[in-house]
Each structure stands twice: as structure tokens, then as C-alpha cells.
Design brief:
Blueprint (H helix, E strand, L loop, with lengths): L18 H8 L4 H27 L19 H5 L1 H6 L7 H15 L10 H21 L15 H27 L4 H15 L3 H11 L12 H27 L2 H9 L4 H16 L1 H14 L9 E2 H9 L8 H30 L6
Helix pairs in contact: 5-6, 7-8, 7-10, 7-13, 7-14, 8-10, 9-10, 10-12, 10-13, 11-12, 13-15, 14-15
Length: 365
Amino acid sequence: MTTFTPKPALPPPGSTHGPLAWVRANLLSSPLNIALTALALWFLWLIVPPIVDWAILSADFGGSDQSACASEGACWTFIGVRFDFFVYGFYPAEQRWRVDIAFLLLGAVLVPQFIPRFPSRNWVGLFGLTGLPLVTAVLLMGGVAGLEPVESSKWGGLMLTLVLSYVGIVAALPIGVVLALGRRSEMPIIRMICVTFIELWRGVPLISVLFMASVMLPLFLPEGVNFDKLLRALIGIIMFQSAYMAEVVRGGLQAIPRGQFEAAAALGLGYWRSMGLIVLPQALKLVIPGIVNTFIALFKDTTLVLIIGLLDILATVQASIVDPSWRNVATEGYLFAAFCFWVFCFGMSRYSQALERKLHTGHKR
């Protein structure tokens, strides 16, 4: 007796599955879509080839001065020559190994957060929030453990941008959470203080906050006590962003159903335990996009420290393009600065999306 052996199923035809089917369904599904696709391809044909020719094919990459840029393409020589200034600012060349170690530590903290199965990933993240700022401060400032002191006035470039944004992010989130809880407090004095703080800092632009922190903050300090310019800028940025963060977190708290609070009370949990174990984890999960959006805004707002004399990466580019020894290199400099900002902002965005997918428990509609 012969047994019947079924043959394996054939793959679906290419017209209904695969790249060709996607093109037909999304780009060629109607006369209007065909016309729009053709218009978009024509537009790309006009824009992309000239950009590629200017940025790559006809560009200059080598050399040590303006004379190396003899073609009509981009002068990436300018970026190569001034790269150290864009990254380190005026930090002493013989001490830049300390900045490099700080960069490596930052990478060692951030990279594992993108690898779900990385061992002890949570502990690495905890170190990044608590120990890394202190270790970085010791490395960059010096004065201890045999490290030569380096004034913060010599910090600049990408290093300064990362210091301002990272410290601002680490400090603004917990302060914002406390302010959000205080604004919803049933104690009138606590609620009034938090509301006043939030509305005061949200009602003024960051430029004026930086001016106040740089010029007027020393007037409120005791005689003989003085903060350097970088610390004053950090205080202004943290206070400003924590007010915005408080409103983001408050939106998450208001989205939590009242039943969650009542369930925590029914279990006999006090205020802080119910907030820490039940309410806040759910609220922060709901407002991850808003939190990351505030972080990205903070990262980009660090460029405003130029007005108080601190040279971040954009300020170092602006200082370099006005150098008489370099001419017509503004486009290359601004593109380099924009690329640096895009890399970090895009990384934060992708991490937030991965975190949303991981913590998704049915709230998405």
C-alpha cells in the first residue's frame, strides 16, 4: 500500500508578496500614485546627483590648509584640520586623553542599553545615572589623584555639548518627577510652591535664564562664594528643563485611572510606596515619547550657551568659519555640526521607540 506524501507549499507569487508587490501596492496603485511617484523620482534626480557630486565625487579630503581645496566640491579638509577643536575646544592637548576616557565611559554606559540581553545592563545604566557624572567631573576638572587642574573656561566643542546635555538630562528627570508630584499634592503650600516654580521657569525663554544664571546668580551668593560659568549654565539649564519635564510627567499621572490609586490604598500602601511601585512606573511608561522629546530639545538647546561665552560644538564651528585662513567653508562646518546633533538625537529617538515596544502592555491603540 502506497502512502501519500504531500508536497511542500509553494511560495506566494511575486505579484502578491515581496518588494514588487509592495511597490505596486504603495507606489503604483492608482494613476495619482503613479504620477506622484514619477514626480518624486524626477525631483530626486534633480537634487541627489549634484549633492553626491559636491559632497563626495568632487570633494577635497586631504591637505592641511585652504590651498588643498582646489576643486569646486566640498572642502572636508577644513573639518579634518579643525576636528580636534570641534571635539575638545581649548582643552590642553596633552590632557585630552582624559576626555577620551570620558567618551569611552559614556559609550560603555550607552551601548549596552541598546542590547537587551547584555548582562547586568540595569546596573550599567544605574552607574550611568549616578557614578558616571562624578567620574567624568573628576577626569575633566582634575585637581585630584594627581590630575592637572583644567579650568572649565577651556572646555568646548562636542565635549562641552555632551557634558551640558548629559548632566541636564540626569538631573532634570528626577527634579521634574518631584515637581509633578508636588503640583498634584493635597498640601496647599507644597502645591503652590511647585506651581510657582513650574510656571515661572516655563514663562521665560532659555536665553534669559542663561543670562540670569551667568550674571545675577552670583549676586545672591554669600561674599567670597562664586560658581564658575559652566556650573551656572548647568543650574539654569537644569531648572529650565525640569519645569518642562514636570508637566510631561504630570500628564502621565493624570492618565492613570483612579482605580490604580484606590487599589494601592486598598493594599495598605502608603503614598510613597504606591507612587513608587504602582503609579509612577505606569505614568512614566505612558509619557516616554514626551520625556525623550524633552531630552532632545535639551540637547539642541545647549547651543544657546554661546551667549554667555561657552563654546559648544556649534560655537566652535562658527568661530572657525570666520578665520581669515579659511574661506567659503561655512556649509561644510554647519553640515558637520548638524550631523553630530542628528546622530545623538536619532539615537535617543530609536532607543525610546525600543523602550516603548519593550514596555508595551496594551495601551497602544
